[in-house]
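Exercise: predict the structure of this protein bound to iron/sulfur cluster.
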Amino acid sequence: MSQIQGSEVSDTVERKVGDLTVRIDRLLCVGFADCIDEAPEAFALDDEGIAEFGEEIDDVNRQRLVRACEVCPVDALSVHDTNGKPLAVE
Ligand code: SF4
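Solution:
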């Protein structure tokens, strides 16, 4: 597989929250903030207006965290359980 030198091909951050693995694809995120409306403890926008993990993400109820991932209009958020099963499928 070839990679274009000097260009960023991926900017994904991942976080374990209980039995869930939450992933933000920061290249897809366009900063609509729907996820933040849904779970402001779990997500925030950084200086560039791109989603990052919030400091209190561990306090967010599992169902609300999954819901916050579901509402992303560009599918920049994904969430899987320990078996790798995707939980936020629209
Ligand atoms: S809802 Fe999606 S596009 Fe909007 S800020 Fe969250 S991750 Fe980014």
